[in-house]
């Protein structure tokens, strides 16, 4: 048992998340804790909710930060929208599509999987074909930005398909939100969940979610209550519902919410479009730097995410030794997951980490490590 | 939509939680975020786990902070230990016993409730009678410290009963841990969950849990996987398991864990026994102060928790106006919950808030508000 304080070093976080958190956001999390039912806190919740609606580009009333990491927000969306026996079509082109399958199966859903190679965007035509032969499907679920592969899928087209086939669309935008366009209302997405530790550059631990009125109606019409009391949106909304009186459900993570609120203010000051443009520009710099080192990307250029890049490990290179050497220099990059383990490095350019200086440091560090 | 920074005031938090968080702990949460798979973080996790074992007074290997508030840790324990159709005996003497019932019913358990008046300890004899006529019961669940009423139950006796009747014991110690003795190994408790925002004086958002080898064996022997992927301890332990390699499950709330670790160091420096004694001493001062104001307690003296006190609202007093006036003075106390709404105030003396100065300020504030 250690009895020493923990003083983490200042890393340059260029893995799949968390990304770097600014001093400004960290200091916001350290403001005095107040009660989760304090009238000042209730006003603050309304402000946070408004900022999340702005971020998701939606008027959805059911927009809130789930009190847990992205995986909790993900499970909350599936748990509220799925009933046992429901049919769901899931697009699986990476680890998070696979996670959707596992969660849905545990909830007793009938799962139809549309597989695609890891490293490629979801095949919209294949999804349309699957929906055509599964007319009973109630939900189409997909990952907008696959953190395990760096592939970007066409969320607008998939949401449109869902609507044409009378399905709700359920979108993972954990890694996309803040880094590339996410337009819930314009795309008519019914449910979306995200994380705070990617392009929002907030500490991990909260999951912004937003559900359309169609999705909310589906929840109200459930035959059985959600199995999870903690995640049941009909209960959570009695606290987050907005307007005056709030009923106690669980104790909100007060200080983590301070950090999220401040991170959203930072993003608002920069502007969403400006943030998207910055991620795109720095991604261009990364591509040039990797090409300079003779390194190739897994994902075809027109399907790449700017904020999450899978770079192929060259033949004969000890991938773990390179990551360890970079970490010695204070730079974290990520390893490959699942079938990509050992084959790629994952280089994140998210939020505060999406800076020209980050690319320059990584360029130098990788050149040394590979020499 | 607000675009202003949120600067909460410094409250004296004397409600049912959160309690006051020291500057030292808040500053720990604001240390630089590092990756959840960083080797330094993995060592830090081992240290945190060691401190939690010390806190729970246990050698249980399955000891970890769940990545969510107390309610998430609660649901995780029930979800892992219960299978559909299992019989469970639940002691209900307040709002959190009622929550146990609701969660267990949603999970498809057959629930036997042993009711007791709100404001009283669980009746051990009634529980023994219930276990005798329900020999198939697999779990006995109870709340050690009922936050809704301020009643303290005999956890040791209840855990012993569970063992005699071949049940696992499942204990809510959200409000007891750190404030009064909690002895998992000496009492042979099989599963316990807590929160960080009570006597540990940490921001809300994490839930320390600990399960015995008997409980872990029950989980390994499940016929069906836990419905919740997020809460499945067999998956969570692949990350928190200890010793070397950790598998990614979900992104840990890195900065919140810094705060918990620091709060545990603070408690270790004071000493657990000294903390218990301080809570007891300050409770005595509160009793004297309330008696001085002619205020009575709901709970009989020998069943009272030192850290959570339900004080009866006198006839003819506007209970909400008193709370509002105290809040104007910067002092938060809690309202009554459920059947106690309007009848009591809940006065917390938890962790950093359990100080003679807190009682003195509340004494002055209440005298003014009641005059």
UniProtKB/TrEMBL annotation, chains A, B:
Residues 43-336 form the Aminotransferase class V domain. The keyword Transferase applies. The keyword Transferase applies. It comes from the Bacteria. Its cofactor is pyridoxal 5'-phosphate. GO terms for molecular function: alanine-glyoxylate transaminase activity; L-serine-glyoxylate transaminase activity; L-serine-pyruvate transaminase activity. SUPFAM superfamilies: PLP-dependent transferases (SSF53383). Keywords: Aminotransferase, Pyridoxal phosphate, Transferase. It is an enzyme of class 2 (transferase). Its EC number is 2.6.1.44, 2.6.1.45, 2.6.1.51. InterPro entries: Aminotrans_V_dom (IPR000192), Aminotrans_V_PyrdxlP_BS (IPR020578), PyrdxlP-dep_Trfase (IPR015424), PyrdxlP-dep_Trfase_major (IPR015421), PyrdxlP-dep_Trfase_small (IPR015422), SP_NH2Trfase/AEP_transaminase (IPR024169). Belongs to the class-V pyridoxal-phosphate-dependent aminotransferase family. PANTHER family: ALANINE--GLYOXYLATE AMINOTRANSFERASE, AMINOTRANSFERASE CLASS V. This is Alanine-glyoxylate transaminase/serine-glyoxylate transaminase/serine-pyruvate transaminase. It comes from Natronospira proteinivora.
């Amino acid at each position: 048992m250690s009895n020493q304080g923990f003083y983490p070093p200042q890393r340059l976080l260029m893995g799949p998340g968390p990304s770097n958190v600014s001093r400004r956001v960290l200091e916001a999390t350290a403001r005095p804790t107040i009660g989760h039912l304090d009238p000042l806190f209730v006003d603050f919740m309304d402000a946070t909710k408004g900022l999340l609606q702005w971020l998701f580009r939606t008027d959805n009333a059911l927009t809130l930060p789930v009190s847990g990491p992205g995986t909790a927000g993900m499970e909350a969306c599936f748990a509220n929208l799925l009933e046992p026996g429901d049919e769901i079509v899931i697009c699986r082109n990476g680890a998070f599509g696979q996670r959707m399958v596992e969660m849905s199966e545990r909830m007793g859903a009938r799962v139809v999987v549309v597989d695609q190679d890891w490293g490629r965007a979801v095949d919209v035509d294949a999804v349309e074909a699957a929906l055509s032969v599964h007319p009973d499907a109630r939900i189409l679920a997909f990952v907008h930005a696959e953190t395990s592969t760096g592939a970007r899928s066409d969320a607008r087209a998939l949401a449109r398909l869902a609507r044409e086939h009378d399905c709700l669309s359920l979108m993972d935008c954990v890694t996309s939100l803040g880094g590339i366009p996410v337009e819930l209302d314009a795309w008519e997405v019914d449910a979306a969940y995200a994380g705070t530790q990617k392009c929002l550059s907030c500490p991990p631990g909260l999951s912004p979610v937003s559900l359309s009125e169609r999705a909310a109606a589906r929840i109200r019409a459930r035959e059985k209550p959600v199995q999870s009391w903690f995640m049941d949106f009909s209960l959570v909304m009695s606290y987050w519902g907005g307007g005056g009186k709030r009923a106690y459900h669980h104790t909100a993570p007060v200080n983590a919410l301070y950090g999220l609120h401040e991170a959203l203010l930072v993003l608002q000051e920069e502007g969403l479009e400006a943030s998207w443009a910055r991620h795109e520009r720095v991604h261009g710099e990364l591509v040039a730097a990797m090409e300079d080192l003779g390194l190739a990307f897994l994902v075809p250029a027109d399907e790449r995410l700017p904020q999450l890049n899978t770079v192929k490990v060259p033949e004969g290179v000890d991938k773990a030794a390179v990551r360890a050497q970079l970490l010695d220099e204070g730079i974290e990059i990520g390893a490959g997951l699942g079938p990509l383990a050992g084959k790629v490095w994952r280089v994140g350019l998210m939020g505060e980490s999406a800076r020209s200086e980050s690319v320059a440091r990584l360029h130098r560090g990788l050149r040394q490590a590979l020499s």
